[in-house]
Structure formats: structure tokens, C-alpha cells
Write a structure and sequence with these properties.
This protein has helices spanning 4-18, 33-43, 50-59, 61-69, 78-84, 94-100, 104-111, 121-139, 142-150, 155-162, 168-176, 179-188, 191-200, 203-208, 215-225, 229-245, 249-261, 271-283, 291-300, 302-307, 324-327, 342-352, 361-370, 410-422, 424-438, 445-457, 462-470, 488-498, 507-515, 539-553, 568-575, 582-591, 599-607, 610-613; strands spanning 374-376, 385-387, 397-399, 402-404, 502-503, 560-561. By secondary structure, it is mainly α. The strands form three sheets. It has a two-stranded antiparallel sheet with strand order 1-2. The chain has a two-stranded antiparallel sheet with strand order 3-4. The protein has a two-stranded antiparallel sheet with strand order 5-6. Strand 1 (374-376) and strand 2 form a beta hairpin. Helix 5 (78-84) packs antiparallel against helix 16 (229-245) and helix 19 (291-300) packs antiparallel against helix 24. The radius of gyration is 27 Å and the shape is flat. The two termini are 34 Å apart.
């Protein structure tokens, strides 16, 4: 019998040979009604289920599309609401995140007694541990480290403390029971008891519980290990759970699209604490609304101003006289002064006009001058947007041929956004990017022109532009059908949806996305992740996808469970309703020659197949 690794290598090697070329398909050939339903559901969701396809057929694709364009008309999945309830970080104001999950600067202030410890016992323990590590690091003394080591409780003291929480039989189960017995024990404990147990256990023992802990308890283990990581944990969990379970599928797709468009890197300094409010306040409310709101919301948000350094940008004439030092951003008080063009450049190249949108380096400089003074009140404490008039360049400016009079203030930046919003290159750039994501990498120019006109006529109404695209002959054509390759994020989510998996926690899936080259919220460059096919097709990526597919189908991805049953024909219809290509069928048949054709193995091969990678 073939070794699983050999099977995976064999199958993935063949996948490269059968991945199809897309560009030869005609965009003038209309899809049949049945294929239209398959296509629309596949493109407007993170992976449609058979029930979705049947519903689209009954309603008609136009009505189904209109429903997805209005998520407020669709009741949200109560299962998702329950799964999201413990993810507190994504709803907290930035300033509260800094206090609750403190960065090094706040830890230092707590250590020096300048800020109080939190009252919550679990959070207090987490911060105490971080403060202890900080003190040892700062002292850099062997004596301090030894004192910390001596203060640790003995094994007997730990056991005694555990027995104040658990009965002796429960303590034995926790110490030497099977994984299932430990899982059942922890799940049976009331939340208060879970907290008391986590406080009683030493750090290594807490971390060892992670694979068997209930979801809410697992989050607390992260808190006690490294408080700041709770923010990334909640963001990843929320993004994956929403994509898998939400009934507002198109809305979630567009939130993902716009976050990539206005990308922020989570791990850049203060942005770790600013990203939750950025997605919540600047992206999510406007995903199907007005582009002007997205542009203005992201331009003013502290996360963007920090990420692309605009908060440090100062006009050609720095402030002088009384209060001048107070007017300077903190970093600039040390002597580094000047204009920063980072945000201005990306605003033109990535957010609005596009690299070929008709601007020059002079325009970049003029836009940067207009945006001086757009800053943040104490960014490392979760501060809000502020306009600082004392560091604003008040000279005359000219942006894309439009004169901006001298003596202006915050309105100079507002005028720039207005110029960019109304520039014809912006509508065309946004339309091309949407068409590349939803239609094909080589979407016809005629479609992009019509979408750009819709953008202009509707003053940047995203819903109107999407409607133009989704109802177009090009979108509902053979040229667009199955013409896109899923990103790793889309593949992982669509596999979970196809299997109807019960995803108790999505942290392991987030780790798999790191391995597949798409860590969530962690694209360093401001470009965001590409939706073009060539970005995601290589042998290593396909091997990784096949490994994940097999693991998910065989219940080897912690946190996700599925019941895979049925014949090969039934599984093909469930997982790939568009049907298998002859080449994929041959790959699977060859892969199964030396293996027992169990349903979970068949499902894994189907999910890892090239046909499943297409949408």
C-alpha cells in the first residue's frame, strides 16, 4: 500500500500538468442557465454549496445576485453569531486594546507603577507575567533571573493549588487521561472553574492544554502566554469564521477585497492595536457602499496614517515659536524633520489612479504636501485622527493640473481626495481590479469601460459597479466560467464549506494559510494579496493544498470536524458540482490504485484537485 506522502507527491505532481489555460475561452459565448447558477454562486461566495446553487436556479440568477448585493435583507447565521461572541478584541476601541493587551511601552509603565494593573484576575496574571519578563530583561542581571526562578511554586504547591479547583479524579484525568477524556473534562467545567484552573497551572502545563481546550478557554491560554497575540488570534478567527459561516457571502468577499486594496500590515508597531478598528470602521461598513467613504475612511484612519508614515510628515517650514515642540509628532522632536511621500505615492498608485493613471512624481510630492498635518494623537496609545495645522504646508500646490490655493489647511487633503475620486483613471483602475477578481485575469476591455462609466455616473457607488459587472454578458460567459484560481484563503474556506465542516476554532487553518503563503493581515507590502492566477500556481503551493485537503477530509486539522460519507459519484456531485475534467478523473483513479477508496480519501483528492482550485 502506498505511503500517504508518496500518494500526495504523486497526485500533486500530476496537478501541475492538468491545470488548464484560461485565456482561450470566448467571452461572447453565453453560459446555459444551469451553468450560470453554478458560476454566479461560485464567484459571489467563498464556495457555494449545492443548496445555494439550487436556490439560485429557483430564484433566477439576477434575483439571487440582487439579494447578495443587499446583505441587510438576509438574516445572518445564528451559528456564526455564537462563534463570534467570545472574540472581544475585534470590537474594542483601539485605546482599550492598548490597555488590555499592552505593548512594551505600556508594560514598562505598569512595571514602574505609573499605570495600574487590570482588575480581572486572568488578565492581571497575564500582565504580571509580562511585567516579570520585562523586569528581568531590563535588569539583565543573573540575580534577577535567579530570583524569578526561586519564586516559582514547587510541584507539590502546584498540585495543591489544582486540587482547590478540581476533584482528585478530575486532576488524575488532567494529568494522565486520553485526549478525549481531557477534552470532555475541560468542556464540563463552568467558565469560572476553567479560569481558576488556568491560574493554578504553570505556563508549560497551560500551553499543553491547547489541543484539547474548548474555544473560549483556548483564547485565554493565548492571553496568558502572550497578551498581544490575542488581537491577531481574534482577527484570524473572526475572518475565517465569517467566510465559512456567514450568509452575507458577497459582503464578506468585498470586505476581503477592500482590505487588500487598502492594505495594512498588522505587525508594524502600533498597527497591531489599530487594525481591528480599521477593518471595523473604515472598511466593513462601506464594502458595498460608496468608494468615497472607503477612500476618506482609510485616509483618516490612524492605522493607515501609521502604516504609511503620514503621521510623521511635516511641511517644508516646520513650526517655530511658542508651542512649536508640542506641535511636532513625537518621533520628529528628536530632530528628524521633513515631508514623507509614502502614503501620497500609494494613494495615487494603489488606491485610486493606478500606476498608469497619468500622474507624475511632482503630483506625488504635491499630494504629500497637501496631507501634511493629517496625523494621530499618540499612536502608541490607540490615539485618534487629528489635523495638526502647525505642521501643515500652507503653500500653493497643484495636483493633476488643479490649483490648490495657498493658506489652506485640512481642506487641502480633502480637496486631493475629491480630485482623485472624480478622475477618470480611478473608475477605470477600480473597475479593472474588480473584473480581475470576479471575471478573469484577461477581462475584456469593453466590460471595464462599461464598469468605469457606471462608477462615474453613480459617483463611485460600488453596488452599482458590481451590478454592471455581474449582469454583463462577459461575466455570464464561457470566457469567465471556471477561469480563476482560488487564493489559499479562498481554497481553505471553500473546502470547509464544501464538506460542511464544523469549525470549532479556526486557528489551525490560519496556520495553514501561513504555510500556503497567505498569512491573514500580514501582507507586508501595501499592494495587498494579488487575485491574479499566476501568483498562486506553483508546485509547492499545489502540494501544500493537496496536503491540507487530505488532512481536512480525514479530520486531521484540529478544530475542524466533518462527516464524509457517500459513493465516489455522490462526493463528486457534492464537492465539484461543475463536474470533473477527464484529466482530473485520471489523476484520482491513478492515485487510488494502491489505496482503499474510502470516502474521506476520495473527498481529500477531490478537494486537492485542479478542478476544485478553480472558481
Amino acid at each position: 500500500m502506498a505511503h500517504p506522502k508518496t500518494l500526495t507527491l504523486f497526485a500533486a505532481g500530476l496537478l501541475l500538468q492538468v491545470l488548464p489555460a484560461y485565456s482561450s475561452k470566448p467571452f461572447q459565448t453565453k453560459l446555459s442557465k444551469e451553468k450560470q447558477a453554478l458560476h454566479v454562486v461560485d464567484r459571489l461566495t467563498f464556495g457555494g454549496k449545492l443548496a445555494d446553487v439550487e436556490r439560485a436556479k429557483r430564484m433566477g440568477v439576477e434575483k439571487w445576485i440582487e439579494e447578495q448585493l443587499h446583505p441587510e435583507r438576509i438574516a445572518e447565521n445564528p451559528e456564526l453569531t455564537a462563534k463570534m461572541s467570545s472574540l472581544k478584541a475585534i470590537e474594542m476601541p483601539s485605546a482599550e486594546l492598548f490597555k488590555t493587551y499592552p505593548p512594551q511601552q505600556v508594560v514598562a509603565q505598569i512595571a514602574r507603577g505609573k499605570m495600574p494593573m487590570p482588575e480581572d484576575p486572568l488578565l492581571r496574571l497575564a500582565i504580571e507575567q509580562v511585567v516579570e519578563r520585562y523586569k528581568v530583561k531590563k535588569s539583565e542581571g543573573k540575580q534577577a533571573a535567579e530570583a524569578m526562578e526561586e519564586s516559582k511554586p514547587t510541584v507539590e504547591q502546584i498540585r495543591a493549588k489544582i486540587l482547590t479547583v478540581l476533584e482528585p479524579a478530575q486532576a488524575r484525568t488532567l494529568r494522565s487521561g486520553s485526549a478525549e477524556e481531557k477534552r470532555a473534562l475541560l468542556a464540563s467545567l463552568p467558565e469560572a472553574k476553567q479560569d481558576q484552573l488556568l491560574i493554578a497551572l504553570p505556563a508549560p502545563a497551560r500551553r499543553a492544554l491547547d489541543p484539547v481546550a474548548p474555544t473560549s478557554m483556548r483564547r485565554k491560554i493565548v492571553l496568558l502566554t502572550q497578551p498581544q497575540q490575542v488581537i491577531a488570534y481574534d482577527l484570524n478567527e473572526a475572518k475565517l469564521q465569517r467566510a465559512i459561516y456567514s450568509t452575507h457571502q458577497l459582503d464578506e468577499l468585498m470586505v476581503d477585497f477592500w482590505f487588500n486594496h487598502f492594505n495594512i500590515y498588522l505587525d508594524k508597531g502600533a498597527d497591531r492595536h489599530l487594525v481591528p478598528s480599521y477593518e471595523r470602521e473604515a472598511i466593513r461598513p462601506y464594502a458595498l457602499g460608496k468608494f468615497s467613504d472607503l477612500l476618506s475612511g482609510t485616509a483618516r484612519h490612524p492605522a493607515m496614517l501609521f502604516y504609511l508614515d503620514n503621521w510623521q510628515s511635516v511641511g517644508a517650514e516646520p513650526p517655530t515659536g511658542k508651542g512649536a515642540r508640542r506641535a511636532m509628532p513625537a518621533k520628529l522632536k528628536k530632530g528628524t524633520r521633513g515631508l514623507n511621500e509614502n502614503y501620497a505615492r500609494e494613494l495615487l498608485e494603489l488606491h485610486t489612479l493606478g500606476v498608469d493613471g497619468g500622474y507624475t512624481q511632482k503630483d506625488v510630492t504635491e499630494v504629500a504636501r497637501c496631507l501634511t498635518g493629517w496625523s494621530i494623537v499618540d499612536p502608541r496609545r490607540g490615539g485618534a485622527f487629528v489635523y495638526n495645522d502647525r505642521v501643515h504646508d500652507k503653500g500653493e500646490k497643484r495636483v493633476l493640473g488643479v490649483a490648490i490655493s495657498a493658506g489652506g489647511g485640512q481642506n487641502d487633503g480633502e480637496k486631493v481626495l475629491e480630485i482623485l475620486l472624480n478622475h477618470p483613471s480611478t473608475g477605470k483602475f477600480i473597475s479593472r481590479k474588480l473584473a480581475t477578481r470576479f471575471v478573469a485575469d484577461d477581462a475584456p476591455e469593453e466590460l471595464i469601460v462599461r464598469m468605469a462609466k457606471s462608477f462615474t455616473d453613480s459617483k463611485g457607488d460600488i453596488r452599482t459597479v458590481l451590478r454592471t459587472m455581474f449582469l454583463s454578458r462577459e461575466f455570464l460567459s464561457a470566457g469567465a466560467y471556471r477561469a480563476k484560481v482560488k487564493t489559499p484563503f479562498e481554497m481553505v474556506v471553500s473546502a470547509a464549506r464544501a464538506l460542511d465542516a464544523d469549525v470549532d476554532f479556526a486557528g489551525t487553518m490560519a496556520q495553514k494559510l501561513n504555510e500556503l503563503g497567505q498569512p491573514l493581515y500580514r501582507k507586508v507590502e501595501p499592494t495587498g494579496y494579488s487575485s491574479r492566477n499566476e501568483e498562486w500556481i506553483n508546485s509547492a503551493a499545489l502540494l501544500g493544498r493537496m496536503n491540507f485537503a487530505l488532512a481536512l477530509a480525514q479530520n486531521k486539522v484540529p478544530g475542524a470536524k466533518s462527516q464524509v460519507t457517500g459513493t465516489r459519484e455522490q462526493l463528486e456531485a457534492q464537492l465539484i458540482p461543475a463536474g470533473l475534467s477527464a484529466s482530473t478523473r485520471e489523476v484520482i483513479e491513478n492515485a487510488l490504485k494502491e489505496k482503499e477508496a474510502k470516502p474521506d480519501l476520495i473527498a481529500g483528492l477531490l478537494l486537492g484537485s485542479p478542478d476544485f482550485q478553480r472558481r
